[in-house]
Amino acid sequence: xxxxxxxxxxxxxxxxxxxxxxxxxERLLYTRDQIFEEGxxxxxxxxxxxxxxxxxxxxxxxxxxxxxxxxxVLVAHRIAAGAAIRLSDxxxxxxxxxxxxxxxxxxxxxxxxxxxxxxxxxxxxxxxxVEHLRRTYGIKRIAIVDTDVHHGDGTQDIYxxxxxxxxxxxxxxxxxxxxxxxxxxxxxxxxxxxATINIPLPPGVTDSSLxxxxxxxxxxxxxxxxxxxxxxxxxxxNHFTDPLGSMLITAQGYARMTEKLKPDLAVLxxxxxxxxxxxxxxxxILLALAGRDYSYVTEPGNHPGKIxxxxxxxxxxxxxxxxxxxxxxxxxxxxxxxxxxGSKYYQRHKNIFYDTEYFEEKQLEKVRxxxxxxxxxxxxxxxxxxxxxxxxxxxxxxxxxxxxxxxxEAWEAYYEAKKDxxxxxxxxxxKTDDTFITFRRDDQKEWRTxx
Length: 451
Description:
Number of strands: 17
Strand order of the largest sheet: 2-1-4-10-9-6-7-8
CATH class of the largest domain: Alpha Beta
CATH topology of the largest domain: Arginase, Chain A
């Protein structure tokens, strides 16, 4: 029997930021109507599944939620992440060939430490799936290709020091749009150099340059990396009618890109042209995943000759592709010691703005620059959350391939942080044995969950 494409649809009726906010349930309801109208669910290649609910432990594999998972994550978020998990399980079992999680809330702006909602995101659906796949099926190499108009800064943050997860994001240049990041020099930490590839594109990019980027940069890099599983963060706000972006991509461009990329799993991210884009783009992507004809899918306003790319935009895109291809080709010439200057730790200070709830987090991130393994990460984070006020936390993450010395050092750092009264909460995420621990200063209590 021919393999099929799985679909999970979750509009999150009971969750919204505000009644007139662009991220609302209507984003998916028009798509649902379009899918029914076209009779897509009657196609033998497509099978619809119900979502499941992600557990707090599945979320804790990817995030440090302050003070805890239940304080930051609503049922709607758990179902959106669970929908992606459900499809990944069906793919791994061989029941379906690929899948499309048409869900909300989105997630690619949610970082490793979560103090609140930012960029409409509280938890990162793709990261939750990555950790599920690695722990449940032992997958070694995973690629995430983010096609949202906004840089996937949350996904980048989570996997910036992970050489086993390739993160590629093409997006509108951060100098012209939120979140103001995602430049070509953001290439990953010392133990994961060039496992992060950012492709900032100027406003006005059309289908032709989009496909040029896919053919001449994204696909060659994926071929070199040889991922066992490819996830598409399928943001659709690059569409020419989207109110939050300034790009000129059509439904046909998205479908052709999907056909070339061949993701195992696509997870809906942004896209806020509720009537003029989302129903058509979602339909085109779904048909492309299923190997069906999508040539008839045309959105309103897409008239022949209307969408034209400026030659300066085209030339700039080619220059960016050439620059990044050279960086990729030379990646093995760069050593851990060169990036760290011989120091034991690589560190950086970060200011993270939570635009939804309007507060700032300050972080000092330190990564053990180990030549034997990807190392462990120490994050000293403090913020004045609206919910709990000001608090400071220490979060420690041990990579699933950490060497014995790094594991011992990370655990020692956890015990030392428990003694430090500056920290209201101390977290340890040990991916080598699937353990997550939370220590609360107020009552000296410790919680542990295990997969």
